[in-house]
Write a structure and sequence with these properties.
There is one protein chain. By secondary structure, the chain is of the alpha+beta class. It contains four helices and four strands; from the N terminus they run H-H-E-H-E-E-H-E. The protein has helices spanning about 1-30, 35-70, 90-105, 155-165, and strands at about 80-85, 110-125, 135-150, 170-175. Strands 2-3-1-4 form a four-stranded antiparallel beta sheet. The protein is elongated.
């Protein structure tokens, strides 16, 4: 629908450009006494807007064709299953990531990752004494380790296998479809 309209615009612009070229050639033959530079300047002035209009219409056609063939912005339609994994201990996190990766590769999935995300550190400062000795304090910290795994174009078997995985306690998983 959109492409037919754009193709129609292109054909109209091309026809106009051809007609203008023919009329320009006839004018050149009639005005042979003019300077060559004057004729070339006029041709350049006449052809530039037509070429710009033609290039704009051609860009519209290319964008419309790429949108029709592959989806929104000319990119291919990719369904991505984004898995964010969080845990307090990095060893447990790495074993659970390995389980997910093994399960996905067993079903021939395209995997991106695991990408280590920055460790989130929460620090808590506490007074050692309850009443006096304000200068005496203890600091505690909680480290949350994170990983990111993307599975490109997952099928139903992969999703079912991932939901049936039993991961150790202390591992938090967020799954999103992009």
């Amino acid at each position: 629908m959109v492409t037919k309209e754009i193709e129609k615009e292109i054909s109209e612009v091309i026809v106009e450009a051809i007609i203008d070229e023919e009329s320009n050639e006839e004018q050149e033959h009639d005005k042979s006494f003019q300077d060559i530079k004057d004729v070339q300047d006029k041709e350049a002035k006449l052809e530039k807007p037509k070429l710009k209009k033609l290039s704009v219409v051609a860009k519209k056609l290319l964008n419309a064709n790429s949108k029709d063939a592959s989806g929104k912005d000319g990119r291919e339609n990719k369904v991505v299953l984004r898995i964010k994994i969080r845990a307090y201990e990095n060893k447990i996190l790495d074993t659970s990531v390995k389980q997910i990766m093994d399960t996905a590769t067993r079903y021939d999935a395209t995997i991106i990752g695991p990408v280590p995300l920055p460790t989130e550190i929460k620090k808590y400062t506490v007074n050692r004494a309850s009443f006096v000795y304000k200068n005496s304090r203890e600091q505690f910290e909680v480290r949350i380790h994170k990983r990111l795994i993307d599975i490109v174009n997952p099928n139903a078997k992969i999703i079912e296998a991932l939901t049936n995985l039993s991961l150790p306690s202390g591992v938090d998983i967020d799954v999103k479809m992009l």
